[in-house]
């Protein structure tokens, strides 16, 4: 097969990249290895992590269309109460992690609707499930990518190839230079970096799952590795991993979280804002994705809670670039099953008892046969050696870039790591996405379209979140289309002032903010 832009990976960055190239009139093939497009938001079942100003500014127009579409879908199809329907900033789950906590399948429906016109016109082909297995290169160009599609292999050639996979799978396949794990302080000067590079020291992987709480005993079979995980401790954790005590990410002080299924709260009073309240005091409402009281009586027998908690962070080994990566991913799923079994059987309750057998695994919500999320939430990818690498000092200062291709905002949020590190959680300033971070130092036609751009282990902690990943992908898709229009390579766009100005004008015209607003009177 051949096309103009090949996007490998159908997560948020991949979808945004495909949409940007399609809007520019290009033909696109988009591939995804899991059953659902949408990555973090759907197959990984992670409600969006967003900044304080997301309802006003600070995201691209197409990302806002996605958010608006999710709310419109609920209003159109769900039995909301009158007050919930009238809630302008409807938060269907009334979760505290985001002002838009929702069921993954709704995001999938909206993403599919955004892509539908291009599928109908024939300019977009989606290969699914489909994963890259090899690539052909010619000096500094990638000629084609071989993808495993069911029992067959498909070879796709394209002038521009975008890597939107969760772990930068195309980088080793194409020989594109990349880095993993911690860079050294001598390389980056970052205050939070170690003295020596640690390429296999990566953030924890998490396998999320959804639960509700209803009558009856819904206890799953005891996982084979349950005894191991029940007794597992980290030296900095303050107790066993399976417990309510854990470090505060920002202060590292040991605290105790609570867990109360279906609390007697008013979801209309929830105002999710991570700047003011992390919201994780009650883990049930922290990432709740359906608040029963927002729907007509009887529609939902229970809230639905999305489990993405500290205790499901798997730190015993990396998810890629090691021989036993598959075993680690399988073990991460076992950890999540063990957490569920512990919740059902042994978790301390506020009334002095143990376990909630009424907790029911909702695999129908996550769309998976085993009840867990279809895909692991992999926070950290392989990252290209880029023309410009974003470092901690840039983010803390809120550096401005002449080649800005978007903006984002989130704390530098690093979870415990495979090297035995505790949380690293550093305040950041509203930041920009430099175009140079999307351009490999050598390869001409391969672009990162997700977490695999030119960040460090440290700055990956704030460039990995949902709206930033979408912006990265959208900029990459727009760059590929622009380069096809002008018959120029990506690095020429960055390094030629006239081309850069034209490209940035195009980004702004399609609703990508390049700088944070500076408001003044007139």
UniProtKB/TrEMBL annotation:
A Gene Ontology BP annotation from the UniProt entry: NAD+ biosynthetic process
Pfam families according to UniProt: FAD_oxidored (PF12831)
InterPro entries linked: FAD/NAD-bd_sf, NadB
Superkingdom per UniProt: Bacteria
GO molecular function (one): L-aspartate oxidase activity
PANTHER family the UniProt entry points to: L-ASPARTATE OXIDASE, SLL0471 PROTEIN
Protein name: FAD-dependent oxidoreductase
Organism: Nonomuraea rhodomycinica
């Amino acid at each position: 097969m051949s096309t103009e832009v090949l996007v490998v990976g159908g997560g948020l960055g991949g979808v945004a990249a495909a949409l940007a190239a399609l809007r520019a009139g290009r033909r696109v093939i988009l591939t995804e290895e899991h059953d659902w497009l949408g990555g973090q938001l759907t197959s990984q079942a992670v409600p969006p992590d967003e900044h304080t100003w997301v309802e006003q500014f600070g995201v691209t127009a197409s990302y806002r269309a996605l958010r608006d579409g999710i709310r419109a879908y609920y209003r159109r199809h769900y039995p909301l109460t009158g007050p919930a329907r009238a809630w302008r900033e409807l938060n269907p789950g009334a979760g505290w992690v985001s002002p838009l906590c929702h069921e993954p399948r709704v995001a999938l429906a909206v993403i599919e609707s955004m892509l539908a016109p291009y599928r109908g016109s024939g300019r977009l082909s989606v290969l699914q499930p489909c994963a890259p297995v090899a690539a052909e290169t010619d000096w500094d160009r990638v000629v084609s990518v071989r993808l495993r599609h069911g029992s067959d292999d498909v070879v796709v050639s394209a002038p521009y190839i975008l890597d939107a996979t969760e772990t930068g799978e195309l980088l080793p396949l194409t020989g594109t230079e990349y880095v993993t794990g911690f860079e050294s302080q001598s390389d980056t000067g970052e205050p939070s970096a170690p003295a020596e590079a640690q390429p296999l020291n990566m953030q924890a992987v998490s396998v999320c799952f959804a639960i509700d709480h209803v009558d009856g005993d819904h206890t799953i079979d005891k996982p084979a590795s349950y005894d191991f995980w029940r007794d597992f401790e980290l030296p900095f954790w303050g107790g066993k991993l399976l417990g309510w005590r854990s470090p505060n990410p920002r202060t590292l002080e040991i605290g105790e979280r609570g867990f109360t299924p279906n609390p007697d709260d008013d979801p209309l009073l929830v105002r999710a804002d991570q700047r003011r309240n992390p919201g994780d005091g009650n883990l049930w409402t922290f990432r709740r994705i359906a608040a029963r009281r927002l729907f007509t009586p009887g529609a939902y027998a229970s809230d639905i809670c999305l489990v993405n908690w500290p205790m499901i962070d798997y730190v015993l080994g990396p998810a890629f670039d090691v021989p036993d990566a598959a075993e680690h991913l399988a073990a991460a799923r076992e950890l999540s099953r063990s957490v569920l079994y512990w919740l059902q059987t042994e978790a301390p309750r506020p009334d002095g008892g143990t376990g909630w057998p009424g907790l029911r695994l909702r695999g129908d919500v996550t769309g998976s046969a085993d009840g867990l999320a279809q895909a692991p939430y992999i926070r950290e990818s392989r990252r290209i050696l880029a023309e410009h690498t974003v470092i901690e000092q840039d983010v803390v200062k809120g550096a401005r870039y002449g080649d800005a291709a978007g903006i984002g905002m989130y704390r530098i949020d690093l979870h415990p790591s495979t090297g035995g590190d505790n949380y690293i959680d550093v305040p950041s300033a509203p930041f920009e996405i430099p175009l140079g971070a999307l351009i490999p130092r050598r390869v001409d036609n391969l672009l990162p379209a997700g977490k695999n751009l030119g960040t460090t282990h440290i700055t990956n902690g704030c460039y990995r979140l949902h709206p930033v990943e979408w912006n990265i992908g959208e900029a990459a898709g727009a760059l590929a289309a622009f380069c096809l229009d002008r018959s120029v390579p990506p690095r020429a766009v960055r390094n030629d002032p006239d081309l850069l100005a034209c490209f940035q004008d195009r980004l702004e015209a399609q609703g990508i903010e390049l700088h944070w607003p500076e408001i003044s009177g007139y």
